[in-house]
Predict the 3D structure of the following.
Amino acid sequence: MDFTIKTYERLLKSFLTNGYSLITYQQYCKQKPEGNFVILRHDVDEIANNALKMAKVEHRLGISATYYFRIVKQSNQPNIIKAISALGHEIGYHYEDLAFTKGDLQQARKTFEKNLTYFREFYPVCTVCMHGSSTSKYDNREFWRAFSLSDFGLIGEPYLTTNFKDIFYFTDTGYAWDGGKYAVRDIVEDSFGISFHSSDEIIRAVEKGDFPPQCLMLAHTLWSDNIMQWTLLHIREFIRNNLKYLAMRNKFLHNIYGRMVKAYWKR
Ligand SMILES: [Zn+2]
């Protein structure tokens, strides 16, 4: 079974035993590392409790990762953020202010600052990462046309400050490492021309020395060892992927899907 906590642990171990350092996004920005490394980034879109399980596995293996939390209730769970920070991981803000303020930049600046101050109660946040907000017509990154990272004491934003020419980006969006067609905004220009479907494929490539030396792995927090949760999430993701895919091509479905998403996330 793929996308379980056990598989996640095997994946991490394969990098560790094959000469990769596993680092946070903040470390990437500050140290400009060389050699083989994987930047470990987690977008905690929801099910924050699973994030803690993954954080514990990493901690046991001596790894620190970056966890980006949203302000919505499904992600923003103070006790979980506290616990993950206490394990030595980096905490960042998974912002979506421009989508929430429907493109109002000044209003977005206010909420961005307020939310950043809130997350800094848990950790000295110095990197942030946009949430894709696939149903909104506003791209959260447009925020940076008006403001700069240093205005907020920040040093990094994966979509803006990563050298994707040299760094291979791979993500588990939609429960597959090659599910890029379901992603609306969280995609980057790819100069590698390779893809992997399952975690086992990645593990085999790493073991054979066929995997890019420098990468950024985005793992969401839907990995689960609970078979019931695993099955329900897989069914939901299958439906969601297809809805999202169709909604990108059909205006009527796009409106309905947008309303469903809006009703789901609680602020
Ligand atoms: Zn997100």
In short: The longest helix spans residues 227-247.
